[in-house]
């Protein structure tokens, strides 16, 4: 299972990197988002993938899954959500002002 | 042209109640089972966003006069405040207390300060999520003008 | 346990949230935000004395024992940085009162600064890798908003790049966290230190350490600084000053923490790597500082040079060099805030940041000119000013550890700093006075107070270096001896 997850994380990283390297702003934002998801999967895998019940006292089971990676992912998702929202608003704003979503045209300082 | 969204609106009227109830359930369930302030707040925010979608934002805001940014700030204040109560008793920051009490209707109930903390979290989540959606959509209406 | 530790984090956050609720009362913002800046400094002072008397202070949040709970740890290094952060942020706020403008004040400027301080203080105090990530995000998200606040064309363009770079580096941070958790099974610094020491720092862990080096280099501007000159030159003066003084320094703090507490077993690989990066940083920074004819650009490249210089102390890794690094870090936070504020005042006066368009300001503004001159001498390290002691100790430490080339680069960089800043001084303040006082675009009224304050603190730090030597020595010894930190956090009896 870990091998499949590793391949999936790699695939997501590849897609994310490809998108980040493109010129359109929206594609870059999607790319960043996909990379963050890949990282979340990686954290999930890092705790070890095993079958067990939720780590709650009520559950009378022998094996428990590791709750820490899940807590980390939850935090990471929330932060990623906030940053992506900010990026989307910003990119929209800059599209309104610069009339372009091409990062090539947003290079450098015109008054230099 | 105003789109015809009668179906969406009448479905929303029913489902919003269900979502709100479910989010209260999730919120209270969180003490010992999966659930809690975060997910409860998020589903409440989902219900409010559904209202925004089905009816107009202005219309909803007329009946729902809350500044969601302030709501989020209030939530964080409550959460930090419960952290400070532990300090007053001489325990580490964020120490939570609980006690079993006999309440008039509910019977023997476990009362915990963690619930107040979770209320703060829920308010913060509702406030943040809704204000993100609102600021994106307000930018959109600026664009149309 | 010591509940004081939470106050530098919780108090600014609390006040910030309060200010959001009372958004309309600008006077309340102006009243409460300095209080929220000073208070953590006072706590830091108390902490410094407690640490001196009874060792490293810890707090296990909610009473959950380390390594399972979240722990906050204040060692001397963190407490000193907390104190300096408080001073610097207070001065930048005082500067902002007169320069930031009504529009930005209304759009949550003060709460955002307070959240930034929350994040910075949290990053200094946390004893846990994932919380380090969270606090990094807290101040990064505030900085994203602060850098775009106002929404001018340049700000939008640079902020997009700034945010994208930082999102990528945060992703790498999490990758590092995931790998480290998979290898060691813990995220508490003290526990990590034990586990890594037990298992031995093999190739895998060294690779992970390099991943963290990349992440913190991006934040600190060590070699991977290409985003820095652009994004630090677009926001208004007060914001740029607080960025230059605090943000890169948190990255440096994180590098110090990781490579003195956890990954200290293979210095010939990791510390050598940092050394090469530091040397490259100084060379490239110096090139930038000399090459540009733009005040803002020269100042930002000077930030980069000093990052490289401070890290020489870590590379040499002796008591003397670490002592120098801490001295220089304190000095650099204060002096960078000072030169950025002076730079912003000059730009406010002349309305341009190009050196060729300004000249002869010394006649109309002698005080500003001489304070800039003091700052320049201090940055170069002329005794008895504040930069001297740090530079002396770092260079001596590097030579003593036979890093002759690194010490040499450090000294060479000082010459370039001198050249670039004296060029600024001559172009801006000397020469013919082309501008009479009525032609000036801005005013120095009100903004001189924080500048004078910072100059005074910098002078005091230089002349009274002996007075804080005791504290800095404890900090340097603490960095050299990870066991102090481990025993303080994982002490089973004391909590």
UniProtKB/TrEMBL annotation, chain A:
Signal peptide: none annotated. Keywords: Cell membrane, Membrane, Transmembrane, Transmembrane helix. The keyword Transmembrane helix applies. It is found in: Cell membrane. It comes from the Bacteria. It is a multi-pass membrane protein. It holds the Pfam family Oxidored_q2. The chain crosses the membrane at residues 6-21, 28-49, 69-90. Coiled coil: none annotated. Belongs to the CPA3 antiporters (TC 2.A.63) subunit C family. This is Na(+)/H(+) antiporter subunit C. It comes from Caldifermentibacillus hisashii.
From TrEMBL, chain B:
It holds the Pfam family MnhB. It is a multi-pass membrane protein. Keywords: Cell membrane, Membrane, Transmembrane, Transmembrane helix. Residues 7-130 form the Na+/H+ antiporter MnhB subunit-related protein domain. It is found in: Cell membrane. The keyword Phosphoprotein does not apply. The keyword DNA-binding does not apply. The chain crosses the membrane at residues 7-28, 34-55, 71-94, 114-136. NCBIfam families: PRK12573.1 (NF009223). Belongs to the CPA3 antiporters (TC 2.A.63) subunit B family. This is Na(+)/H(+) antiporter subunit B. It comes from Caldifermentibacillus hisashii.
TrEMBL record, chain C:
It is a multi-pass membrane protein. Residues 127-416 form the NADH:quinone oxidoreductase/Mrp antiporter transmembrane domain. The keyword Transmembrane helix applies. The keyword Iron-sulfur does not apply. Keywords: Antiport, Cell membrane, Membrane, Transmembrane, Transmembrane helix, Transport. It is found in: Cell membrane; Membrane. The chain crosses the membrane at residues 6-22, 31-48, 68-95, 107-126, 132-151, 163-183, 203-228, 240-264, 270-292, 299-317, 329-349, 370-390, 402-426, 447-465. Its main location: membrane. GO terms for cellular component: plasma membrane. Belongs to the CPA3 antiporters (TC 2.A.63) subunit D family. This is Na(+)/H(+) antiporter subunit D.
